[in-house]
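Regression test case RT-17, inverse folding.

Input:
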């Protein structure tokens, strides 16, 4: 089972929504959303997944944003009530990031949410003892942990392998000399390594910043299977990277490289077909959509592998 972990940025949410709308993921893929802002896009995404009777994990205590404060200050009562009540659906998995406040946070909701139905993120060894104390008599349905001995020794049941497999560079232009690299073997070995699933941050990476910037270079990240079914990733980078001008032109430079490679490998996903349309039509969808299509391609590719 695959658990793509995404922050609730607009285009990441739309990626999940369009995958579901187009029936490109099934029961073996459960997206995890760490909400950033209480938006209608977040609500629409969750509602669609509920409507289609699929599963989504939504973190109730995000650690990288002021989501909870923004939610409590929300003026729209309809949106506020909707987001606060998403866990009433059996299709939404109540999810928690272990932290120094976890004992109090989980005690506050124990009457409403069973520990055995919960998804837990445990990615700091400081909180392993919190896990052992809080879950001494009940095991979460899923516990995401890194592939490290400290976790393997103490977290025995319902473990999901959770790793950041994306090589984050300081600047987009830095991918120019990193055209092709290994991405992950987790989909091949998670089961024999004692995990019930695997999770990663797709082609985004774990680093988080709410502020955007105009890049000097445009890069398109595309994962693919090699002959041994390992996942690798290619980085297609624009050429004219001396300033921030003409992002559309930079996109087309990167896209041209992608399409040349695609003519050889012929990857069959929704994301790749959309990239091909932009190439044929000479259109520039914006950098958010570029990231969305790369995420969609990755998740659909893994879904196809799991459903073989």
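Golden output:
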């Amino acid at each position: 089972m695959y658990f793509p972990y995404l922050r609730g940025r607009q285009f990441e949410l739309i990626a999940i929504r369009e995958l579901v709308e187009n029936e490109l993921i099934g029961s073996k893929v459960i997206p995890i959303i760490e909400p950033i802002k209480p938006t209608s896009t977040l609500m629409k995404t969750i509602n669609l997944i509920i409507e289609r009777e699929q599963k989504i994990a939504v973190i109730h205590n995000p650690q990288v944003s002021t989501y909870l404060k923004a939610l409590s200050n929300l003026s729209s009562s309809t949106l506020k009530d909707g987001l606060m009540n998403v866990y009433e659906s059996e299709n939404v998995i109540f999810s928690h990031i272990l932290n120094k406040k976890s004992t109090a946070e989980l005690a506050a909701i124990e009457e409403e949410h069973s520990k055995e139905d919960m998804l837990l993120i445990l990615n700091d060894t400081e909180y392993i003892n919190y896990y052992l104390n809080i879950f001494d008599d009940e095991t979460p349905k899923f516990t995401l942990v890194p592939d490290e001995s400290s976790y393997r020794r103490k977290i025995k049941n319902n473990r999901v392998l959770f790793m950041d497999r994306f090589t984050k560079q300081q600047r987009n232009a830095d991918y120019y000399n990193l055209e092709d690299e290994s991405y992950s073997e987790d989909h091949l070995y998670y089961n024999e390594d004692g995990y019930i699933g695997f999770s990663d941050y797709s082609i985004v990476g774990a680093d988080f910043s709410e502020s955007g910037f105009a890049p000097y270079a445009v890069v398109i990240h595309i994962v693919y299977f090699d002959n041994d079914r390992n996942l690798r990733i290619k980085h297609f980078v624009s050429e004219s990277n001396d300033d921030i001008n003409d992002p559309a032109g930079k996109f087309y430079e990167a896209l041209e490289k992608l399409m040349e490679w695609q003519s050889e490998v012929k990857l069959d996903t929704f994301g790749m077909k959309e990239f091909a349309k932009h190439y044929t039509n000479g259109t520039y969808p914006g950098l958010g959509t570029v990231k969305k299509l790369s995420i969609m391609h990755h998740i659909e590719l893994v879904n196809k592998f799991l459903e073989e």
